[in-house]
Amino acid sequence: MTNTLKRELSNRHIQLIAIGGAIGTGLFLGAGQSISLTGPSILLTYIIVGFVLFMFMRAMGEMLLHNTEYKTFADIAHDQIGPFAGFVTGWTYWLTWITSGMAEITAVAKYVEFWIPDLPNWITSLSCILILMAFNLTSTKMFGELEFWFAIIKVVTIIALIVVGIVMIVFAIQTPFGQTSVANVFNNGSFFPHGASGFFMSFQMVVFSFTGIEILGITAGETKNPERTIPKAINSVPIRILLFYVGALAVMMS
Q1: In this predicted structure, what is the pLDDT of residue 116?
Q2: Angle CA(160)–CA(107)–CA(40) in degrees, nearest 5?
Q3: What band does 26 get if pLDDT is binned at 50, 70 and 90?
Q4: Around 221, how many Cα atoms within 13 Å sit in the side-chain half-sphere?
Q5: CA separation for the pair 253, 247 (Å, rounded)
Q6: 6, 140 Cβ separation under 8 angstroms
Q7: What is the DSSP letter of 137?
Q8: pLDDT tens, 39-69?
Q9: Taking each helix axis from N to C terminus, what angle separates 31-38 and 195-209, rounded to the nearest 10 degrees?
Q10: Which of 71, 92, 166, 207 could form a disulfide with 221 if both were Cys (CB 3.0 to 4.6 A apart)?
Q11: pLDDT at 1 (0 to 100)
Q12: Secondary structure letter of residue 172 according to DSSP
């Protein structure tokens, strides 16, 4: 029995998995808290962290293409550093997703609670876990399709947010909190309203919001034509960060 994968993920699957992995509850649910604790400097934080992660993704992509038999980045650690490093990398990554996955499930429950306050959070969380488990027990191709369409929902939502925000800014719409304007980003008189401590505290929130960007590194063994698909997905990381994070947050603050 050969230990091979079927490579059922096409270019469109990988592109949208890469986009969906970079957009999470850190933007949808955590943006308000991030802005309140950090102020406009949160934009600089996203740019800095985004650049570092882009360099990381470039390095990981080169390693994956150096040997297309690598199935995940844990294989890279195993091969280049040693079996123990591969073991630690694999199980550490599992632990990371067990922890952050529970945070994501909790976020889903909080969203549902907003619309259906009488529904217990544990029912929402359990239902979500069972649905996700059912999806992940299907074929790789089905997983790719689900990721593709779910990521499109995220993309359309954020683009709609940005477009509506720009229209509100252009027409200077009056809201219960004041008039929309780009000047609102700096109205508090400082790019760092909470000083250096607020700025540096924002890094842990921003890094968490990017959890999932590395998913591209565990789809390498399932990807059709990885030599073409993976570089294309990785090289689009800066555009995604500028549009989906910096653009969306700038519009929200305006």
Answers
A1: 93
A2: 55
A3: low
A4: 12
A5: 10
A6: yes
A7: T
A8: 888 888 888 988 898 888 888 888 888 887 7
A9: 160
A10: 71
A11: 45
A12: T
